[in-house]
Amino acid sequence: MTDAEGGIAGSWLARVLGLPPDALAGVTVEPVAAEAAFCGRLARVTASHGLPGPVVVKRPAADPEIYRMMAGMGFYTREHRFYADLAAEAGVDTPRLLGVDDADGEAPVLVLEACAAGLPGDQFSGIDAHDAVAIARAMAGFHARLREDGPAAARTAWVPGFDDGPDMTAFYDACWPDFARRFGHCLPDWLMAAGPALGPRLATLRRGLARPPLTVLHGDLRLDNLLLRPDGPPVFLDWQTVVRGRGGFDLAYLVAGNLRHHDAAAIDTLVTAYSTALGEAGWEAYDESAVRDDVRHGVAFLWGRTVTAGARLGFAGGDRRARFEAALARWCAAAEALGVRRILGA
User: Fold this and answer.
1) Does the global pTM surpass 0.90?
2) Cβ proximity of 252 and 298 under 8 Å
């Protein structure tokens, strides 16, 4: 798919888009979000002739270790299937899939429309609760449409369950020493003391978030995966971790890693907005009390993901470490506000 200089070849892009080989001229490639993209490579591609507008090419990670992890967990294939099978049913704004190259048994390379409207979200900067209400309401509509007893249920059968895959206890235990060495200085004393023994409790929380009522989750609801619009709902990006679980987990992800302030009123604002939108969309069986519990349990479970990511991802260069430490500080603040220490039994 590359030209002599290692860029994206116009002939490859034309083939993926179903165009004649020489249909594109003056192809220009601009890398996107290089510092924030741990798990894939994004490029914005334009052409002086042959394309009606810019497109985004999404390639797998260049780092072999990250590629093996992502491909082994099916993340690249999940994203392709979401765009191909579910995006039209989702009820939220997402980029349109224009083409895919999944030849030779490699992870799929996606060609997506480049969304003109919206500003990229920034998890590092964070967001205030009243500005996050539109995100919570849009995600509630998505969850209601793709719930397990909803009209699109048959089309979601391929989506993995929240607790599918190997037990996480051993993985967490293996990651803890590296995480503690890298980031132990950022943690409160109680968490440093309890951290080595939390694997079994996290596995229990994972099973709880996999019990009905279920819906399709985004699974990685960070500001970095959103385009924000002041006069409308956001555009949702990056569907590699789509999974079936309890809707409150997506809200927990938004709360734990993205809110600037984690006082009870701020969190309550989002829980109420989300629950109200669920009822408006017809999913009354998943009530506000259940959502509130799932947000607390979801934030507690995210401790496991925080540890494994902190131990396994590379942090050399740029502001990756600063971004991760900012997200870690927000998790600690959310945990304090929601009483997560008690949930973890620490």
Assistant:
1) yes
2) yes
